[in-house]
Design goal:
By secondary structure, the protein is an alpha/beta fold. About 20% of the residues lie in helices and about 30% in strands. The strands form 3 sheets. It has a 6-stranded mixed sheet with strand order 1-2-3-4-5-6, covered by helices on one side. Strand 8 and strand 9 form a beta hairpin. The protein is globular. About 45% of the residues are buried. The model has no long low-confidence stretch (mean pLDDT about 95).
């Protein structure tokens, strides 16, 4: 079962995936910790937090979530104020992100992993952010992409380290070959499918 929470300064989606008595979170907008603890049944535990990238809106609640649940944080790169866009966020009047530690630095090569007893594939895709990653559950046909891919669009590339060519190349290489019925769970807005984006996304087709 997958549940979605939308919150934080710019309406970011965070996801909670049930894996028996364990749960996995994808991204941590502000307010995620309270929601996760309300949503999980008594006796369940959040074991892992997977970050699709570390822009401030996706990690505003990461430190609190880790502190309150003891979860391990996984990301392509270690925490840094450059990745969280601290300077830009401050210029928009937003508070600084509470620092956290990435327990498992995944690196920039595609890999497989087991979290919560589930088999995951990790596709690092730069372009929107240098540390972008998509997480794929083949057994459930579910893909979590953060701001890499949206319904009918892709992530903006005007932040530091952005590259439209790298982003589109990564999407075409790693995501478009997935089964068309795969659900694409994005960091903002509604879900879509790989098949829908293959046909109608102007950046991809």
């Amino acid at each position: 079962m997958i549940k979605v929470y939308t919150g934080g300064s710019v309406g970011c989606n965070g996801y909670l995936i049930e894996a028996g008595n364990d749960y996995i979170a994808i991204d941590a907008p502000m307010g995620m910790a309270d929601w996760v603890l309300r949503t999980m049944p008594e006796g369940a535990r959040l074991t892992d937090l997977l970050l699709t990238h570390q822009h401030f809106d996706h990690v505003e609640g990461a430190a609190e979530l880790k502190q309150r649940t003891g979860c391990r944080i996984h990301a392509v790169a270690a925490y840094s104020k450059t990745l969280t866009l601290e300077q830009a966020a401050a210029s928009w009047g937003l508070p600084p992100v509470a620092p956290y530690i990435v327990d498992d630095v995944l690196g920039t090569a595609p890999r497989k992993a087991e979290w919560g007893g589930l088999q995951w594939q990790v596709f690092p895709i730069a372009g929107h952010a240098p540390d972008g990653a998509a997480y794929y559950l083949a057994a459930d046909d579910e893909l979590f992409v953060g701001d890499i891919l949206f319904a009918g669009s892709v992530g903006r590339t005007d932040f530091p380290g952005g590259s439209m060519s790298a982003l589109v190349r990564g999407i075409r290489e790693h995501l478009m070959p997935l089964p068309p019925h795969t659900t694409v769970n994005s960091g903002h807005g509604p879900a879509t499918t790989i098949g829908e984006e293959q046909l109608n996304n102007p950046y991809i087709c």
